[in-house]
Amino acid sequence: MSQTNDRLITDVTQFLDSFQSAMAQVSDARRQRDALTASASVERGRITVVVNASGSIVQTRFSEDVDDLSYSQVARATVEAAQQAAAEVKRKSEELLAPLRAARAQLPQLPDLIEGAPRLRDEITEPPVAPLTPPGERQTASATAEFEDAVEYRPSRRSTFDR
Questions:
Q1: 3-state SS class at 150
Q2: Whose C-alpha in 18, 19, 29, 134 is 20 to 30 A from the C-alpha of 144?
Q3: Looking at the record, which segments are called Disordered (predicted)?
Q4: Following DSSP, what letter does each residue of 50-62 receive, concatenated?
Q5: What spatial distance separates the first Cα and last Cα of the chain, rounded to whole Å?
Q6: Which of 15, 34, 28 is nearest to 100 (CA)?
Q7: Positive or negative, the Cα torsion across 12, 14, 17, 18?
Q8: Which of 134, 131, 38 is nearest to 84 (CA)?
Q9: What H or E segment, with its residue span, contains residue 39?
Q10: What is the C-alpha to C-alpha distance for residues 116 and 13, in angstroms, rounded to an integer?
Q11: Reduced to 3 states, what is the DSSP secondary structure of residue 29?
């Protein structure tokens, strides 16, 4: 029994050491990620948008000849540039975080330490990607598609609730 306890203590100690190292890497990667920006130019460089690591617009620049475009062209092009810049900053962020994810995958799981324990990482799901189209332009699934097996209730003139 003592040998089992010694092994568990060693495993937990190694896990905690790995965890502390991973947390230091996370902190460093977070600082680097927070400093990330990306920019994109459209309409032959007349519109440039810069986004931060979260994909939020932090700067928009228009060239002197932007007035050659209509308001709707400027609006559409600004959205396009913002989406391109957001995609680029996301790519940079994924590249920065890839080694961290690989290190995390090497950390032992709870079932590795305690037999029969659940794999908590398997329970975490990624949130869906938000659509890039304006709300009014999105195709919505009909409500009936969600409830194809639903039965519509049509009470007779006199139901059992009326009695």
A1: coil
A2: 134
A3: 124-163
A4: EEETTS-EEEEEE
A5: 71
A6: 28
A7: negative
A8: 38
A9: strand 37-42
A10: 20
A11: helix
The phi-psi region of residue 97 (left if phi > 0; otherwise alpha if psi is between -120 and 50; otherwise beta) is: alpha
The predicted structure's pLDDT at residue 143: 44
Q: Provide the pLDDT for residue 125.
A: 62
pLDDT of residue 161: 47
37: helix, strand or coil: strand
Identify the pLDDT of residue 8.
73
- The three-class DSSP label of residue 6 is helix
69 DSSP 8-state letter: S
| 116 phi-psi bin (left φ>0, alpha ψ -120 to 50, beta other) | left
Which residues, other chains included, contact 153 with Cβ-Cβ below 8 Å and sequence gap of 6+? none
Structure-block tokens of residue 115 = 């037999």
Mean pLDDT per block of 10 residues along the chain (163 residues) reads 74 75 76 89 97 93 97 97 96 87 73 69 62 71 51 55 47
38 three-state secondary structure: strand
Position 3 scores a pLDDT of 74
**Beta strand extents in 43-163 (DSSP E only):** 47-52, 57-62
